[in-house]
């Protein structure tokens, strides 16, 4: 699985993860899904997005959530 539609450019949205260099961030797409929008809803409201853009945004977010955090034990 590639994430070739997720781009990072310090001149676009402060370098945050964006969709294909556009000014729509991965977090915005994930937020839309989290708030109940379906993929067809998102494509209707953002016609420049494609279904694969949304799927890759979700895959990218899922990968970030896989990170392990190892807290330092308190003394």
Keyword list:
globular, 3 helices, mainly alpha, two-stranded antiparallel ribbon, 75 residues, 41% helix, Arc Repressor Mutant, subunit A
Brief rundown of the structure:
The protein is mainly α and 75 residues long.
Protein topology:
Blueprint: E1 6-7, E2 18-19, H1 26-34, H2 39-45, H3 51-65
Antiparallel strand pairs: 1-2
Helix pairs in contact: 1-3
List SSEs in N-to-C order: EEHHH
Rg from Cα: 15 Å
Under CATH, the topology is which?
A: Arc Repressor Mutant, subunit A
* Helical stretch tally: 3
Oligomer: single chain
Our measurement of the CA-to-CA distance between the termini, rounded to an integer number of angstroms, reads 42 Å
CATH architecture: Orthogonal Bundle
Helix content: 40-55%
Class inferred from helices and paired strands: mainly alpha
Q: Tally of extended strands?
A: 2
């Amino acid at each position: 699985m590639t994430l070739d539609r997720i781009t990072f450019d310090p001149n676009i949205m402060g370098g945050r993860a964006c969709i294909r260099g556009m000014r729509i961030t991965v977090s915005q797409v994930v937020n839309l899904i989290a708030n109940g929008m379906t993929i067809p809803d998102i494509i209707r409201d953002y016609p420049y997005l494609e279904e694969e853009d949304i799927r890759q945004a979700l895959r990218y977010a899922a990968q970030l959530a896989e990170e392990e955090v190892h807290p330092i034990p308190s003394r």
